[in-house]
Write a structure and sequence with these properties.
This protein is of the alpha/beta class. The protein has seven helices and nine strands, in the order βαβββαββαβαβααβα. 40% of the residues lie in helices and 17% in strands. It has a four-stranded mixed beta sheet. Strands 1-8-9 form a three-stranded parallel beta sheet, sandwiched between helices. Strand 5 and strand 6 form a beta hairpin. Bound molecules: adenosine-5'-diphosphate and guanosine-5'-monophosphate. The site of guanosine-5'-monophosphate (5GP) has 20 residues, from strand 5, strand 6 and helix 4.
């Protein structure tokens, strides 16, 4: 799984990773509205609260969590099918969800993308130009908690300073040796896996 604060560059890194390794991106479901340029079924499945609750209630989500007042979850079936086929899955999810997946698939690899600094994170979030001021403040507050949690619990921390370098570091991690005793059904190259596209936003 790939996590990281909103705006750290998860989508950019995951896009680069997916063009280098053979893995499938897990398209999450969310109750938030599409941002400019986001495509239903590609970036997210955009669903209403009722649809989300139905899917989660019927066991259709591998994990789900609330973030910024909206719900986000990983549809279970595509992940299970991909892993069964022996391929890797990359998830772009926040920390709570990543921990849920790790409990279900102990071999899943947790990669956290760190911003070079908090100021740079704020700059990138604002530069995106599609996030309201209130939303930016909420996301920055959550980022502090996520970074603390990641330092303690994640398998790998990668600083997204130079984009190409961050991509190659994540690729090396996913192509690296499996974690001994890990659940190979759940992590790419540390099995067949579950890193994230992304947190990374
Ligand atoms: P996230 O998915 O984490 O919200 P995005 O991939 O949308 O992040 O990136 C947020 C912003 O940061 C975008 O404008 C992107 O172009 C920019 N960005 C991503 N990686 C870098 C980097 N290494 N250096 C500078 N800007 C970056
Ligand atoms: P954004 O609204 O910026 O696209 O995403 C906000 C946060 O939700 C990001 O940290 C992103 O990684 C996370 N996220 C996206 N999809 C999922 C998901 O399926 N499950 C969980 N738990 N988090 C997700």
């Amino acid at each position: 799984m790939v996590s990281g604060p909103s705006g750290v560059g998860k989508s950019s890194v995951i896009d680069g990773v997916l063009s280098s390794i053979d893995a499938r991106f897990s398209v999450s479901a969310t109750t938030r509205s599409p941002r400019r340029g986001e495509i239903d079924g590609e970036d997210y499945w955009f669903v209403d609260h009722e649809e989300f609750t139905e899917l989660a209630g019927s066991g259709g989500m591998l994990e789900w969590a609330e973030y910024g007042g909206y719900r986000y979850g990983t549809p279970r079936a595509p992940v299970v099918e991909t892993l069964k086929a022996g391929a890797h899955v990359v998830l772009d999810i926040e920390n709570d969800g990543a921990h849920q997946v790790q409990r279900a698939h102990p071999g899943a690899v947790l990669v956290f993308l760190m911003p070079p600094s908090r100021d740079e994170l704020e700059r990138r979030l604002r530069a995106r130009g599609d996030t309201s001021e209130a939303d930016i403040e909420r996301r920055l507050a959550v980022a502090d908690e996520q970074m603390l949690d990641a330092r303690e619990h994640y398998d790998h921390l990668v600083v997204n300073d130079d984009l190409e370098s961050a991509i190659s570091q994540v690729v090396s991690i996913l192509e690296g040796p499996a974690i001994p005793g890990g659940d190979s059904a759940a992590s790419p190259h540390t099995g067949s896996g579950a890193p994230t596209r992304s947190n990374t936003e």
